[in-house]
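Before relying on records like the one below, remember that each one covers exactly one chain. Contacts with other chains, cofactors or solvent are not represented anywhere in the record.
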Amino acid sequence: MTLLTLVLVFQDSGAPVSPATHTSALLDMLHNSGPTALTVLGILLLSSIFSWAIMLSKWRTFRSAEAQSRKFVRAFRKSGRLSEIAAVADQFRPSPLVAVFHEIHDEYQRQSGGRGMPPNAQALERAALTAASESLTLMEHRMTWLATIAQSATFIGLFGTVMGIVDAFHGLGTAGAATLRAVAPGISEALITTAAGLAVAIPALIGYNQLTARLRESAARMDDFGRELLNAIENAALLQPATPVAPPPMTPPPGMHDDQPRRRSF
């Protein structure tokens, strides 16, 4: 940044520069850049395209999942039976809540056949946690690439700048002209890679933070839905009528015997 300030301060002309002049100067610097700078710019361009593809894909996926989750929760709260929800749950498949519901419902069916109090409520809770963890793992797919690009793009651009400055000063020493006019073009070309690195890293960092926040919201929403579903199962089991218990068979009083003789069974 100090070198950039020197270049701007010691410019020969103080007249305002039009945007077309800036564009042509930028194109000239790109045209005159060395192989190292062009390689760095190519890597940053590919990283930018990849990061934007990840962000747009994740935003579209999260928006669809959130919309389907709202519809699924409304349908779940309106329905009075789990079997009805299980029959239509696949219609809301983009929602991660569907996986949580199916995992709890299947475990409940294995334990008690879908009726009565579940014998092992902790198993239902573990099933909900497992389903939520698997859903989050799928939603976090390729998020590590986005974090890597956000952290490394600046250093890649800085590497190109350092190499460009080294080349500029090496050419200055070879030419023997120790003037700012001789070193300024090389330095300005080298600083392009740093600017490109920032242009790639800043959107990737913002997108990663936003997507991470939405992941935390999805995790909290799955935990809340799992607890709500467990409460609904327990409340429905408590409201079911108890099975009548058959009275014990009456035994004849002592001294009285049946008409038919009893046979000993083996």
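Residues 42 and 180 are 29 Å apart (CA to CA).
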